[in-house]
Amino acid sequence: MTHKARSPDRWIMMIFAARVLMYANFMVYAACLPLLLDEWQMSATQAGSIASGFMISYAVSLFVSSWLADHIGARRVFLWSAMLSAVTALLFGLLGRSYISGLIFYALAASTQGGLYTPAIMLFSDRYEAARRGSAVGYLIASTSVGYAFSLLLSGLALSWSGYEAAFVITGTLPVLGAVVSWIALRTTPNRIHPRSPSVRWKTALWRNRQARVLVSGYTFHCWELLGMWSWTPAFFAASAALAGHGNAAQYGAYFTAAMHLVGSVSSASMGRLSDRLGRRIVLCYLAATSALVSLVLGWLIQWPIEVLFGLGLIYYFTAIGDSPVWSTALSESVEPAYLGSILALRALLGFAAGAVAPVVFGVVLDWTNPDGGAPVSQWGWAFVTLGAGGVLAAIAAAAVRSGAPGR
């Protein structure tokens, strides 16, 4: 049975709340990064490697959980991931206290979180009809943005209260509650396993499907830009605040970025619905092109007034995340349900592998263009250009998406 989703129903809101709680620790490292650079005596390259280690582990988790969802059901994978995420979030919160321990336990936390994303897309795809699916998946992606904002806000408050250790512990406890809410939300949801044709493998299904190949490629470039931006914009805004003479620069970076994630949640919900009405391709093209343009110029404006940068950052987050539900919805409509999990697995591996490399490349370029070191870092232009390159390629892929009727 499919459902309409012009407005969020109780099931969507329960999943929304659960994912917000389970992502409470997702952005704590980015929020604390300005302090951790000194506390853990890290270079920008080392700092980027922790973010990249998280993304690599998350990419593997997405791949495995998506593949498993095809074979044992999306509901089962989602609930197991929720329980394991609660455990690993606590471990990172309690034991991440140096570069090495942070690298290990942050990656461990990521290794359990993949089942909270792509299996959720499959659950939404099964539940909601195609003409309204963009709106439904928009709410799903919006919950991610709200979760990131919540993580950043909690981290900023904890930083002002008792340092990064408190931020790690507080954000590491809430996924336990998220796992409980997940179980309540899905207790009556069926665990569907779609039958496959024995003569068609998922690789063949993808190879014969040009639309799916374009969508997977576009999502990969989108992840390069988006995940690199997520890793480094808190530090960028903290540096801007420090250069402007504001105290507590790390808190400024966390709060600014939290506000931007809230804007991203509005973008996800609204752009998913807009794509139901206008079609997937046109929304993808406009959003991808705009975010690429902001990536190419933002870093050069570090000395501009913080208020102006904040406004530009809102546009950046709105456009960079707004196409996420559209990429996912378009792919769910282009692939047979029996193969969706496997193709989502490949997409996740490629996309989040790209997102894992992007923060390291960003950090290497940041070190290279600031050879004298020191804090705050003042030269950010070329580092952001590396993200803009991914954005440009995502826009090209969006232009290659086959046009169709709204909701198709």
Please tell me about this protein's structure.
It is a single chain. The protein has a single domain (10-189, 202-399), classed as MFS general substrate transporter like domains (Growth Hormone, Chain: A), CATH 1.20.1250.20. Helix 3 (44-72) packs parallel to helix 5. It is globular, with a radius of gyration of 20 Å. The longest helix is centred in the middle third of the chain and has 57 residues, at 130-186. Helices cover 79% and strands 0% of the residues. The two termini are 19 Å apart. It has helices at 10-22, 28-39, 44-72, 74-95, 99-110, 118-127, 130-186, 202-207, 210-243, 249-278, 280-298, 306-322, 324-334, 337-369, 381-399. It has 15 helices and no strands. The protein is mainly α and 408 residues long.
Indicate the overall shape: globular
Total beta-strand segments = 0
Model regions low in confidence, pLDDT < 50 over at least 5 residues? none
The level of helicity is: over 70%
The share of residues in extended strands comes to: under 5%
The total domain count is: 1
Mean pLDDT across residues: 87
**CATH class wording:** Mainly Alpha
The radius of gyration is: 20 Å
Question: Remind me, CATH topology?
Answer: Growth Hormone, Chain: A
Secondary structure tally, helices = 15
Secondary-structure-based class equals mainly alpha
The CATH architecture name reads Up-down Bundle
- Going by CATH, the homologous superfamily would be MFS general substrate transporter like domains
Name the quaternary structure. single chain
Task: Report the sheet with the most strands, covering strand number, pairing sense and barrel closure.
Answer: none
